[in-house]
Amino acid sequence: MTLAADVRPRHIPESDVPTGPSGPRWARPALAALLLATAALYLWGLGSAGWANDYYAAAAQAGTQDWKAWLFGSLDAGNAITVDKPPAALWVMALSGRVLGFSAFSMLLPQALMGVGSVAVLYAAVRRVSGPAAGLIAGAALALTPVAALMFRFNNPDALLVLLMVVAAYCVVRATETASTRWMALAGCALGFAFLAKMLQAFLVVPGLGLAFLIAAPVGMWRRIGTLAIGAAAMVVSAGWYLLLVELWPADSRPYIGGSTDNSLLQLALGYNGIERIAGHTGMGPGPGAPGGERPLFFGGEPGIGRMFGHSMGTQASWLLPAALIGLAAGLWFTRRSARTATVRASLLMWGGWLVVTGAVFSFMDGTIHPYYTVALAPAIAALVGISVRELWRGRRFLAPRVTLATMSAATGVWAFILLARTPDWWPALRWVVLTGSVVAASILAVGAHRFGRAALTVICAATLFGGVASAAYTVATVAGTHSGPMAVAGPRTTDIFGGPGAQRPPGGFGPDAENPALENLIKGADNRWAAATIASMRAGSLELKTGASVMAIGGFSGHDDSPTLAQFQQYVAHREVRYFIVGGHGGPPGRASSTAGDIAAWVQKNFAPIDVGGTTVYDLDAPVGG
Question: Mind telling me which residue stretches traverse the membrane in this protein (predicted)?
Fold first, then answer.
């Protein structure tokens, strides 16, 4: 059932008739070209800009040095504390480092391959519903989304999250066709492991996926509900086994769960990475009532319906968002009289539910959010554009589909013009080319595309080209540039959401320390369980990557966690398990270190003499005052 079928019966063009399992003869070569181009784009210069996010890079390195650190996602090989996310993405990066030797390239290689895999699986999911042309549009749209190019070349957990969510969507498409229990269970498994990449964010797609199956699966209601229950059970088991392992493992024999308040992975999921992200301030940037009255742009800007289009988020993933929303609305309207099991409508409900629910949560959440989170919207936007463009084009003989296509083209051009105007010094002529080309293509689509016969294909190709060239240019600029730190954003170096010319890092101290060879040599010479300890993760992670030594991050990422306690740290020192204490340079938000971290620093300063190492104050914990 296509969008046009509800307007009037139509003739299927010869190019749409499948010639085998892969469709028309051109489909496989076109898919191969898409995947090769995506691989070339994502692998180009991979790792040449350094470690990306030192926080996750240090944890991946620790996973290559110690299997317990690998299992729990420890920030250090001494297993003091974990990162503040579950470790599934780190498992893959660390295994790559063990096989290929740890380097920036070997760490990021799995991320780039996940990007290629996401494009391939998205193509497969869309092709099953609307054919290979729709699949190619969707795959190319995902590959050329700027934030996707950023995250698939970065070491945050979002790359694995997106891949597993797209795999789950493909499995639901297959399950919906025949009410397959096996495919629904596989979808649940994919989402469960996505939870182990980035916790509750993985479940934002569940309403859309579940709704599509519940409405369209070709069996009775109770059978549909039962199959969904099996998928939910598979999701719980594939996520729950690791939660259970962590809870049952003796706490004194594993690292502290970073970001939690009680050393519990479940509390981390429901608290810092769950309810606090949605409902309120988590300590990472101003919450409601913060000084200045406005939330910084690198924390997503102010909550509200316009956040996804705003200065912080807009250029990351919203280039085709207006077209996707128009296509979704038109598709649901044109298929309103379709049979319950219509595959096109089911797919629109699935991807539309993904987009609307995830977009709404991101728009209105009042806790910590960063621009790169929008990568989770990219597959849904791409799929909706691919499906709606192909199905509307099939009905081009009729006015309503043509006008809808023209509206999508014009809206994309206008929105791209607005987004490009936010970087006025970067290719200023591009926005005018995109706007003019999109409007002209839209005009032709609206009034005459149905009269051109096979030549009409040129019109839709031109509309697609003008619609995608702005996003593609931003994506290439993202790949060509250097992006690092915990708050990287996609776009050219002139992209500035942090307040300085060409800035790519926020004010307030986040970022690597200056080079200090003397300090690095000192750390390399220590053979203790932890060569050094310092407050928070920024300096700790940087030193670990430069020296290969284990450095304890007191208080975790921002120094806010109550681990280790003063008594634990004193015991480590007494047993000569930690050699040096390094003052300052933690790089976290001012004032966020915990009272425990402050107590440890005060105890060290009282009982050990300071030394200057390359301009950094260091305390030798093997040399107490008066000892």
Answer: 26-44, 99-126, 132-152, 159-177, 183-216, 228-246, 317-334, 346-365, 371-393, 405-423, 429-448, 455-477
